[in-house]
């Protein structure tokens, strides 16, 4: 799953990777982003519009589900095309969530040990996600997960769908709507490009913030 992540990468470098103008206001570094908050996304609000940076609510609920519908934070890649809840957004409302890395917890005796995952080269990550419009002209989203690969498999059985750099434009392409075409054009980042290290259990509390949360634990 993906239940916590960080975004402290330079907004200019993220915009450059997406071939977009830098966001007008940038954003404050966040080291402990939890569900049920506004997060930075990259999405198209119309098929003829350009991708743009905007805040989206991390918790997905289609408008037709009503206020009592579930509000998942993740969508399993294996169910995107078969689930009524996700299928429409998978074909028409795909978005990207930029991240510097994400957290996962290794089960053990006592408290679970958190790990921080990032790219080996420390470049930004782009997480595949889906979005739906809300009544107030904002949007909500769910981050897509897939079976864990590489080093991530040692910590948890799921991981976010991290896209490779060549797939970003295709993922946002509104004309790419068929499942097979999407699968042919979009690829996840190779597992060998990722690394991870144990971090402080302070990240377990969503009210904790700051760069010390991603610092490796002393051996």
UniProtKB/TrEMBL annotation:
Report the superkingdom from the record. Bacteria
Q: Which terms are listed as keywords in the entry?
A: Covalent protein-DNA linkage, DNA damage, DNA-binding, Hydrolase, Lyase, Protease
Entry's EC annotation: 3.4.-.-
- Top EC category: hydrolase
Q: Name one GO biological process term.
A: proteolysis
Has keyword Transmembrane helix? no
Name of the protein in question:
Abasic site processing protein
């Amino acid at each position: 799953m993906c239940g916590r992540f960080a975004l402290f990468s330079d907004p200019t470098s993220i915009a450059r990777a997406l071939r977009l103008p830098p966001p007008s206001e940038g954003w404050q570094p966040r080291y402990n982003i939890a569900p049920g908050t506004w997060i930075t996304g990259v999405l198209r609000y119309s098929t003829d519009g350009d991708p743009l940076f905007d805040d989206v609510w991390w918790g997905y609920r289609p408008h037709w589900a009503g206020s009592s519908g579930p509000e998942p934070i993740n969508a399993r890649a294996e169910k995107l095309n078969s689930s009524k809840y996700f299928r429409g957004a998978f074909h028409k409302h795909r978005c990207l969530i930029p991240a510097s890395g994400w957290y996962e917890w290794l089960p053990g005796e006592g408290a679970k040990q958190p790990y921080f995952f990032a790219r080996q080269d420390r470049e930004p990550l782009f997480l595949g996600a889906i979005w739906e419009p809300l009544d107030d002209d904002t949007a909500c989203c769910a981050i897509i997960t897939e079976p864990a690969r590489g080093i991530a498999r040692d910590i948890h059985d799921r991981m976010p769908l991290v896209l490779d750099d060549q797939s970003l434009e295709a993922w946002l392409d509104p004309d790419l709507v068929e499942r097979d075409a999407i699968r042919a054009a979009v690829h996840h980042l190779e597992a060998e490009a990722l690394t991870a290290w144990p971090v402080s259990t302070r990240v377990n509390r969503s009210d904790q913030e700051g760069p010390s949360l991603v610092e490796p634990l002393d051996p």
